[in-house]
């Protein structure tokens, strides 16, 4: 029987991260909880939305970027993974990919009901992976869906990991170079609430095994979406696979190619050419 956690307001993510870190070593499970986290009657803060738009490259309008709704469900995701029944440590988990389906544009003045659950636990060659499913509704209408695949490194679950496959090449062409400042992680954390230490400061990033601060994967996706959003239909699905962390400060090169309304997106290191992210956008049929 599904257990439901209903949030009356957005939790303070710093406190939730701290709780998850403290209980991480005690988590020893192999099954996912039948758990849903919901928050109803959510009104969008217009100032917070405008600040997000500016950090991620969207125009400041009354329309809500598809990736901003992920920001609203992210606290629900963290709450679920910090719950005592969740089997794996949150600290050290890796966001492998994110798929968002926007069924229609959402207006910033609409009231939303948000829900998150987790499913599809399966092995990965570096541990275990599972999908966090997010939904946003206006009344009874499903307007937005989100699937975030997370890797829990070193965890063992039944089954055999899918064989590795070759990644496609990023779209070719000169693209556009984006210089990324050293404080980008802190600026995105301020508008998203994601205060994971690997994004905040070089010293805290080094404590988790990174050479310096890394950019949030969802900033990467948001910036890639912002580059093509004005050429997309109202309803679409955008998937981005996160490949190699983006260290900051740095310069990255974004490329995009469109065929019959479908887009292929790529983000690479502007100097070395190493691939940071690969994406696709498919219009709703």
Write a concise keyword list for the protein shown above:
HotDog_dom_sf, Fatty_acid_synthase, alpha+beta, MaoC-like_dom, MaoC-like domain-containing protein, Thiol Ester Dehydrase, Chain A, fatty acid synthase activity, 2 domains, single chain, 285 residues
Structure description:
This protein has 285 residues and is of the alpha+beta class. The chain has two domains: 154 residues, Thiol Ester Dehydrase, Chain A (Roll); 118 residues, Hotdog Thioesterase (Thiol Ester Dehydrase, Chain A, Roll), CATH 3.10.129. Helices cover 23% and strands 37% of the residues. It contains six helices and 13 strands. It has an eleven-stranded mixed beta sheet with strand order 1-2-6-7-8-4-10-13-12-11-9, with helices on one face. β11 and β12 form a beta hairpin. α1 runs parallel beside α3 and α2 packs antiparallel against α4. The radius of gyration is 18 Å and the shape is globular.
Give a quick rundown of the structure.
One of its GO terms (cellular component) is fatty acid synthase complex. Residues 155-175 are annotated as: Disordered. The chain is α+β, with helices and mostly antiparallel strands and 285 residues long.
